[in-house]
Prior knowledge:
Elements: E1 15-16, E2 22-24, E3 30-38, H1 39-44, E4 60-70, E5 74-83, E6 96-103, H2 116-119, H3 129-140, H4 144-154, H5 174-188, E7 197-207, E8 218-219, E9 236-240, E10 244-247, E11 255-265
Antiparallel strand pairs: 1-3, 2-3, 3-5, 4-5, 6-7, 7-11, 8-9, 9-11, 10-11
Helix pairs in contact: 3-4, 3-5
Amino acid sequence: MAAQVPRWTGTLSLTETPESGIIVIGERTTLTRVFEGTYANCRAGMLARGTFGTGSMLGWVVASCKVDSIKGARGKLTITWEPGGASATMPLPCPDFNLEGQDLYPRIERHQMFNQTSTGTGSMPDITIETMLAVNAVVRASTGWARNLALAVINATPSTAGAAANPPTALTDADQQTMALNLLDKLRKGEETYYLAGFKYTWWYFSYTLPILSDGGIIETPSGPGVVATAFPADQSWLRLADNMIPVGVNGSMFKITLTYLGGPQGHWDSDIYS
């Protein structure tokens, strides 16, 4: 008995089915189109992942494609599209943010006890360059004689022996002597830095086209989501870091851009350097 050959009725072209056209807007937006036809034509109609649409599908890119075999040499072609590219008009995912504490650990010399005038925290003057030079010499001078001489300068009892051509100047200001001895004691105990809490604020948004990125290194107040008057301490100064970008769409059809800011007390970021 001869084998039965399926008889096809109707058009041989791919026909879009009533279940086609489902759009889902969630973490990823998708549009599903479903076609039926001969299995061979469904196979021929498959599109590679990352193919950009044209005509009515302009602004979409293929996310996945599959063909199901149906009894009688029939087939079903399912193409899942995602919006992408410069022509995309579907809503982008909403921007979001993250805020976490950041340990800054500045050098001990930056503590407010040595900078009361500039920080407005007390009546003591700021530590001077001369005092810092003397402390630095006590800790880092290359010879014992130089270290002892620097300590004598801080104690206001310098000896000019061996330094007649350039006799040292004693520290006679009581406030500077106090700060110098205080700083030396902390360095002696290994307290070269101290804990200072700041914040790391990151926020991200999405774009169908390549954005202009910043290389950071500037003092700038964040303006992303979650920035409200009560969210951050009022005395924060913010340093913008370099932007990050990763592709999150198929074939470069959508990008995620992340902006990062480090927050510290007012004056923590030097405006001469980060401008």
